[in-house]
Design brief:
alpha/beta, eight-stranded mixed beta sheet, six-stranded mixed beta sheet, 16 strands, globular, binds ligand LYUYDEPV
Amino acid sequence: MKMAIVQMDIAFGEPEKNFLQVDSFISQAAKQDADVIVFPEMWNTGYALKDLEKLADKNGEQTKNMLSRLAKQHAIHVVGGSVATKKAQGFFNTMYVANRNGDIVAEYDKAHLFPLMDEPVYMQAGQAKNIFKLDHVECGGVICFDLRFPEWIRAHVLDGAKIMFIPAEWPKQRMDHWEILLQARAIENQCFVVAANRVGSDPDNEYNGHSMIISPWGEVYLSSEEGEGIFYADIPLDEVDRVRNTIPIFHARRPELY
Ligand SMILES: NC(=O)CCC(=O)C(=O)O
């Protein structure tokens, strides 16, 4: 599977500019024959949380329509990072995934809201996991701060995920945590971890990318530079079974003890 990770700058509080950028990135990745394209977190608005009433995508309609249309047009799976949405219960940080037929195969609301960026003040937390299939491969998706909760990612892997997608707006000052946690989640769950982080800055933080793809053995298949762009890597999916057969942790675990 050829992955394309988009490490984009996000125009703060300017969804229309960001929609145009996303459109252009999808066309570029399709020209490189990518199977899957992955975007960062909250790419429609950035963390312009005070303006969500004006900016959030109502029921994600604009996002779903665009991702679905472009996924079908270019025959590419789109893991749509996440966008700020407005739903009946309030504002959410929502991931949509469109498969290459244009079907929306996942809608996930971020479960763990990040206090340091005021998410719990403005947004509602999701209540459900996020498992979906791309080309018959079981995948899972969580968002940024969710990465710090190993039990949440383990729950997705126990439900069958072989690839975990993790879009983020993870600030520069905690890059060491980002890299170590991504690698740990891949090794402990013996799955691929595909993580897209943004670049640029907003009024409160600077972001320097370092998007990554880690194999089930912990090998770094991709560790991107700091600039804006699309970064590509092929992932051999049979690595998941090979590693799980080499060290059979899912047979050896003792859930009755914990
Ligand atoms: N947008 C986020 O959830 C950021 C999470 C983060 O920076 C962290 O350290 O955790």
